[in-house]
Amino acid sequence: MRLARQNRLKHRSPQTHPVILFVVGDHTFAISAAAVIEIQALQEMQPLVSQGFRYSKVHHTITRDGRRYWVVDANIHFAMMPTQSTRVLMLAETPVAIKVDAIVRMAEMSKMLPLPDSFTGDERNWYLGLTLMNGTVVPVVNPASFLSHLDMNALEASALVHVRPAASIGVMA
Amino acid sequence: MTAASPESFVLFPLGRKRFALPAERVAELARPDIVHTFPSNTRMVIGVLLRRGIVIPVCDVAQTLVGKDAPPRKFYLIAKRKFQKHEENAAIPVSGDCELTNSPLLPPTGKLAAYVCGLLSLQNEIVEVIDLEKLMTEEAQ
Fold it and tell me: Among A2, A121, B67, B117, which one is least packed by beta carbons within 10 Å?
């Protein structure tokens, strides 16, 4: 009886969580696979028309099923030097996409460790925690950190301001 | 006025100069290890060590204590940091072997940084005792 219970425990698979590993510059990051709906190439991106309404870390948009996604440059978001981006991760919960250098692979995250309290800067918002992948510490990014609702409202407002003059001319004509 | 009774301190070198931490705040001296880095913007916190499956933040205080010419750091002094509800180990890179000493803690005199909580008068040197929390908090601000 006791032996059977031990075997049952032995064969129980540990709780894991699928994540996507991606690279920006020299750093590897993890993001919950559930937070990403699609990975696209950069060709799908459209540049923001006016320099004037470029929001510091958003220079492009991408459209999927008629919905506009704001493309956040991960280098700028994480205050890193520019690198060569090749992929865009489109997020599930918000109209935000992240421009990254490359996708490494899918992986199973067995445990997420809290970010130590010694970290007191923006990284507390950037990361949900840390995980270990093949003996390396990898930060697990917080999908909600890339653009706040305030940021998105500002972007929407900028886009409206940009569109308004052309629309006004049409009405006057 | 009576002299303060001796207390235990861990002396750690940063180049030619030595500093001290109260021994009760030091957990261990660790050998060189890989510092795992990721983007962050907390000053002095340069990454983390992975020791026995535990993540330990690396707080490099050398530049603040000895300036830009801080020597290469070889070992890590694992010190306990106090937070509101708990303590957390932090790895302080140091440039050489550390030493345990018993000495009375003298009050800081003259123009010293706010993070110096006292002085130790040893044979040929005066050693500043560091309040790690003040040092890290001041730097964070």
Answer: A2
**Placement of tokens 């140091």 in the chain:** B94
| CATH number of the structural domain spanning residue A132 | 2.40.50.180
The count of structural domains within chain A is 1
Q: Distance between CA atoms of B139 and B141, rounded to whole angstroms?
A: 5
Q: Could you tell me how many CB contacts below 8 A there are between chain A and chain B?
A: 62
CATH number of B7-140: 2.40.50.180
Check whether A15 has a pLDDT greater than 60.
yes
Are A80 and B37 in contact (CB < 8 Å)? no
A104 closest CA partner among A158, A31, A45, A168: A31
| Residues recorded for chain B | 141
| Interface predicted TM-score of the whole assembly (ipTM), two decimals | 0.89
A59-107 pLDDT, tens per residue?
A: 899 998 899 999 999 999 999 999 999 999 999 999 999 999 999 999 9
Domain parsing of chain B, residue ranges: 7-140
Structural domain includes residue A8: no
pTM: 0.85
Q: What is the greatest pairwise CA distance in chain B? A: 52
A133 min Cα distance to partner chain B (Å): 12
Nearest CA of chain B to the CA of A30: how many Å?
A: 12
Which residue in chain A is spatially nearest to B34 when comparing CA positions?
Answer: A136
Q: What is the distance in angstroms between the Cα of A141 and the nearest Cα belonging to chain B?
A: 11
Q: β-strands A87-91, A36-41: how paired?
A: antiparallel
